[in-house]
Amino acid sequence: MDKVDACGCADPVVETDRVIVRTEKLNLHYGKLQALKDIGVELPANRINALIGPSGCGKSTFLKTLNRMNDLILDCRIDGRVYIDDVDIYGDIDVVDLRRRVGMVFQKPNPFPMSIYDNVAYGPRTHGTKSKTVLDEIVECSLRRTALWDEVKDRLRASALGISGGQQQRLCIARTIAVDPEIILMDEPTSALDPQSTLKIEDLMTELKKSYTIVIVTHNMQQAARVSDNTAFFLIGEVVEYGPTSRIFNQPTEKRTEDYISGRFS
Amino acid sequence: MTTRQVFEQDLIDLHTEIIRMGALVETAIANAVTALETMDPELAAATSRADDAIDDMEKSIEHFSLEIIALQQPVARDLRAVASALKLVTDLERIADHASDISEKIIVLCSMKRIVLPHQVVTMANLAKQMVRGSLDSYVSRDAVRAAEVARSDDRVDELYERIKNELVHLMSVDPENIAAHVELLLICKYFERIADHATNVAEWVVFLVNGDHRNLN
Predict the structure, then answer these.
(1) What are the two backbone dihedrals, phi and then psi, of residue A68, each rounded to the nearest 5 degrees?
(2) What is the ipTM of this complex?
(3) What interhelical angle do B179-211 and B144-152 show, nearest 10?
(4) Which residues contact A154 (CB under 8 A, 6 or more apart)?
(5) Do B76 and A262 touch (CB under 8 A)?
(6) From B83, which residue of chain A is nearest by alpha-carbon distance?
(7) How far apart (Å, rounded) are the C-alpha atoms in residues B127 and B101?
(8) Is A83 within the bounds of a domain?
(9) Is the pTM of this model over 0.90?
(10) Alpha-carbon gap, residue A94 to A100, rounded angstroms
(11) Do A249 and B4 touch (CB under 8 A)?
(12) Residues A163, A161: Cα–Cα separation, whole Å
């Protein structure tokens, strides 16, 4: 099913048990510094997967390996395997297409200095969509799915820089889903937002997981507990523990996990 | 390691408060048993009066537990410590209530024509008392094995209760003049049997606190 056509019109297809991301012995070095060590995880589709851990533990680095954002960093060396839908994304693939399939939302809202409409239409246009009717449909659909349509429908041609921070972040999510990705990476997407805007994004994530797989880095442990289905705890480049969020926050098997989630940092 | 000093102190204070409440409950049941053995209405009356302080402690610990949840947002073992505290104080308060109920029945019994206590009544009362003490000891030392042992004793209390009930029914049929006194005594035994049930609950919460596994142990 075409997800854009489906928005707001039909129930999305929820795949419950399919593994969409799989890593094997994933190691990453920045020069001599090893940032990821032998990461082997399987992330299920249509789930919110939270990555938690102290600063510098490798969680954001891991996130960026999923759409090869680290390719842009000098001296970054990666070995091991990252499979998305069983295709090794570090093999012979189209990186531009990979980044369409695996979208990213950053900590600070980063709308382009253009209109609200053009922000959302930017991706589809880049990927060759020219029809105004189709673009109108994609823009409306994406803005509706991010619960932004009613707030901005009368000022689609206004600058995206004029809306609030929370609205800007939802616009960035709308921009991401406008190109019909499979996975959405979120790097601390609410850390710059007030509690009300944070709640809207969290509600949105729960809605979006019906159609997309979400991988979120968060420093907010309560947020990970509230919204995610699975949680991975990173520490010094390793995944200490990964499992259902309810288990991680109730009965973690590793003492290091328990110490971290209960606020006892070593 | 960086710790959460206020939170750590809150958890220690919570633990201490439960131990204090447990000590009052232990005293209440021990006094109820002694008052029964000696048929002492004054001790029974004092035991009944002491229940108010235990009720106050229950409310105070509940309030403190909810405050910890609201302000410190505990997870994992910490959350189990607070959740088990919230549940456990309810059982402790019920045990104290039953000690008070027993004491009131003793006062009634003392005002009636004296009857002979079947010897198993005191045995059962002491076993229930030991279960309360054992469950509280297992809480203090966070000993799941000890807690499970305490819970197993409940079978013996149930068995004794059934025997005593049959014996009292028999006594009522052969000694109709003292039916009222035997009914009071039967109620006393039922309260001890319920005390053992609540001690079992306390033991189950201790197991949950230690390893996160909450199930019926008896």
Answers:
(1) 60, 35
(2) 0.74
(3) 160
(4) none
(5) yes
(6) A250
(7) 18
(8) yes
(9) no
(10) 10
(11) no
(12) 6
Strands A230-235, A238-244: pairing is: antiparallel
The alpha-carbon radius of gyration of chain B (Å, integer) is: 19
Cβ-based interface (< 8 Å): residues of B facing A: 1-4, 7, 73-80, 212
Question: Which of 208-237 (A) contact B at CB < 8 A?
Answer: 221-222, 225
Torsion of CA A217, A239, A103, A93, to 10 degrees: 160
Give the whole-angstrom CA distance, residue B100 versus residue B48.
4
Q: Is residue A266 part of a domain?
A: no
Residue-range domains of chain B with CATH: 5-211 (1.20.58.220)
In a domain, A63, yes or no: yes
Query: What is the end-to-end Cα distance of chain B in Å, rounded?
Result: 40
CB B105 within 8 A of CB B184: yes
Torsion of CA A134, A138, A140, A142, to 10 degrees: 180
Count of structural domains, chain A: 1
pLDDT of res. A2: 43
Question: What is the tens place of the pLDDT at every residue in A109-118?
Answer: 999 999 999 9
Residue A229 domain flag: yes
Coil vs helix vs strand at B11: helix
The whole-angstrom separation of Cα B99 and Cα B194 is 10
pLDDT tens track for A55-66: 999 999 999 999
